[in-house]
## 1
Amino acid sequence: MTELVALDFFTVPTVGLKVLFVLIALAHERRTVVYFNVTEHPTAQWTAQQLVEAFPWDTAPKYLLRDRDAVYGTCFQRRAAHLGINQVLTAPRSPWQNAYAERMIGSIRRECLDHVIVFSEGHLRRVLARYFQYYHRWRTHLSLAMDCPEPRPVLPPDRGSVVAVPEVGGLHHHYERVAA
């Protein structure tokens, strides 16, 4: 699990009836979104460049789980091989074989994008960046023993009263203890 990253795309419609494609790279070990980007026209060259940007220098994972989409063309495959990444392909029309990425995409949709009208590519990037900050620091996961992808200390009751702090433009909240 420590050396496995899943890669997947999903689409988001805009108010102007454009369709934007979002690429996410999800590290399996702590369910951390290590990289994301948005484009209107994904190509094999663009996706290959995103792989380099997601894993600069010597940070590339040993294994990359992905589907058989045409956007992972020859250019992408050569770039992955050059980075020393072994690609693990899911069977055709088998999204359950990339379950963590599919679950993450479902969470993004249910917890964020179903409540937001996306205006542009830049707007979508800002919304997703704020959501991922919330997701990494505050959203608990049952599979992580009710911890967040970035572990945090649990404060005892004697630290003060509980205060709600808005996140993602008020769409979500996290709760902290503050001294009176």
Note: The chain has four helices and seven strands.
## 2
Amino acid sequence: MRSSLLPSARSLLGVALLTGLMACGAGMARSQPVPLPDPKVDVPAAGQQTAVFAGGCFWGVEAVFDHVKGVRKATSGYAGGNAGTADYETVSTGRTGHAESVRVVYDPSKVSYGQLLKVYFSVAHDPTQLNRQSPDVGTQYRSEIFTTTPAQQATAKAYIAQLTAAKAFPAPIVTRVEPLKAFYPAEAYHQHYLAQHPDDPYIVYNDAPKLVHLKQLFPALYTDG
């Protein structure tokens, strides 16, 4: 469950944007991004492509990819379960198999799948947290990559092995990788939640710092949207 955690959202938003060192933003703060996937295993593609990522509350993950150049559309939704349980209240029970996820439609001539993976692991979430992200706990907040092609599947698995070998994180990566069966867009009020509610204490405390880190670590990929 998301809750209002701070008494003065507007003032603390300024602090978050200046420091980028709050809550899960602090946990994910890195002086350098993780390395890119080995070019030999990145996914060459032409035309519009789709990737799906889960990494905690979809509000922050969607906001990150909304600000990546080459991303045409990011949509919050549910993946991993069935159509009949793809609604927020049911998914929030943690018993549906769904993960809060983000579908990313992108132009591979402007941003590669490997670059999206690098943003996902460097900024969007903490891949060492099992079935949770910061204050949110449950299988619906798990770290998972839902692949849409066999090439994505191979690249994601190889990248996790590469990061593990490089000891890119102080704890084991728990990110799951499996083919996408279906993606179900979330309710309208969840879409672009950060942009619509920048003063929401949850956003200030947990998600605004991710945009700070994105701009700091990936200035060439960052866009104001």
Note: The first strand starts at residue 49 and ends at 55.
## 3
Amino acid sequence: MARAAIAAGADGLIIEVHHDPDHALSDGPQALYPDQFEQLMRDLYVIAPVVGKQLDFAYLEKATTIRPSASVREGGPRRAVFAGEMRAFAHKAASQFFGAEVRIDPVLSFRAVFQEVKDGRSDFGVVPLENSLTGSIHDNYDLLLEYDVRIIGEITLRIVHALIGQPETKLEDVRRVISHPQALEQ
């Protein structure tokens, strides 16, 4: 039921876990053993990104990090920047991580993300570090070494690309694809 609920878009689950359900003071018949719960969480970790969700294992730590009342900038809301365009995958990652707690703005490059944070124009920066299909994003590892910043959290985001064309076009007839290089790599 929990797997189906996440696949249907649920934002939360309540799951009973007990090492000895037969002797639990309440809800024993519906409780999972810890090893069953561990397997369920692995399953949900895979399912959640498919429906635009994430399992946030560090939500309490994240909440204390992003909610302090004062921004590093004078006045105004807390701010995060990402490299790219609004509604692109980096924007989606930033929005899913921070929610409505933080204003999210685009900048032109990965280096600009780091520079905004270093200069105090932004409280947070969001950059990709790993892509399961194309590997490490080496530029950002180099920038982490160059700039005095620290990683405060992570998010796993499922990326899906689609090839579009005229309805009557057959895939074997495609001779040229026009795309951002990242999509072609993936």
Note: The first strand starts at residue 79 and ends at 83.
## 4
Amino acid sequence: MARGQVLIVDDEEDILELVEHHVAREGYGTRTAATGEDALEAVRAARPDLIVLDLLLPGVDGLEVCRRLKADQSTAGIPVVMLTAKGEEADIVAGLELGADDYVTKPFSPRVLVARIRAVLRRKRRQPTGESEPIKAHDLVIHPGRHEVLVDGEDVDLTFTEFRTLHFLARRPGWVFTRHQIIDAVRGMGYPVTDRSVDFHIATLRKKLGSAADRIETVRGVGYRFKE
């Protein structure tokens, strides 16, 4: 029995075959797609456990594929590992902000890619079951399954990182978390995220939350907490 189903999306046939070979050798079931449209159709036909997604695709590009998947409640929870030649910091940040779980640049080591896939699937399996339960704090409501935040009944448009940060803090009201703990919880260890970027995300998150902004408190010299 396969360890999980992986959808591999790339318009370069040699890379598609290379990735499929190494992923299948690790015991995963595989399916492939060469365009963004084909990838979306493949996900609709049968949800994979993980998607390896190239960015530079003909037609609908990889960023748009990721955006559509993360915007749909039925597919938002599918982990995405981006595999692309676009290795600039801005490209990496854009991919992670859209909800990608990891980012591997070309040229790449197939062994490293497979290790990243295993790590992402391990993190997904370890998520506590309570993470899917809605959280209510007076005028603020967080729906993890729907990736939705409401303030006074109005929808708040958050990026993937902003949502994960808010949800992480809100699940443990009153607990103080350092910036490094927030980074590890939201992105996993080893991501190119700095303390300063955490402060930036908190600042933009507070601005978007409006009247509920004071729910996130700064603890000087330590980090942040969600106000009970």
Note: The chain has two domains: 5-126, 130-226.
